[in-house]
Amino acid sequence: MLYFNNCLVRQLLQFKFLPDDLEVKFVAYVISDECISCGACEPECPVEAISEEEDKFHIDPDICIDCGACEPVCPVEAISPE
Ligand code: SF4
Ligand code: SF4
Q1: What are 4-53's pLDDT values in tens digits?
Q2: What structural domains does the chain harbor?
Q3: To test the ligand 2 pocket, which listed residue (41, 50, 51, 53) has its Cβ within 8 A of the most ligand atoms?
């Protein structure tokens, strides 16, 4: 198992520069229960990985490219790397 935290590896996989059977786990940012649903993080995301759910905002780990742009705008520090 290899752990990566950047979009470079995603691109390498996409363009077949890495073997298909290589087991790779990406680390995404997550939003905790501290979220007060202010919505400040959503427009910061360059890939639209953040969306509003019933009681808080959520980051889709399959879309997040781990850029970290959302983390500093959160007023309650609810966003962190997984
Ligand atoms: S870390 Fe970057 S890609 Fe992931 S949710 Fe935050 S802004 Fe979007
Ligand atoms: S900026 Fe923080 S408090 Fe506001 S919606 Fe995003 S995670 Fe929730």
Answers
A1: 555 566 666 666 666 777 766 667 999 999 999 999 999 999 999 999 99
A2: 2-81 (3.30.70.20)
A3: 41
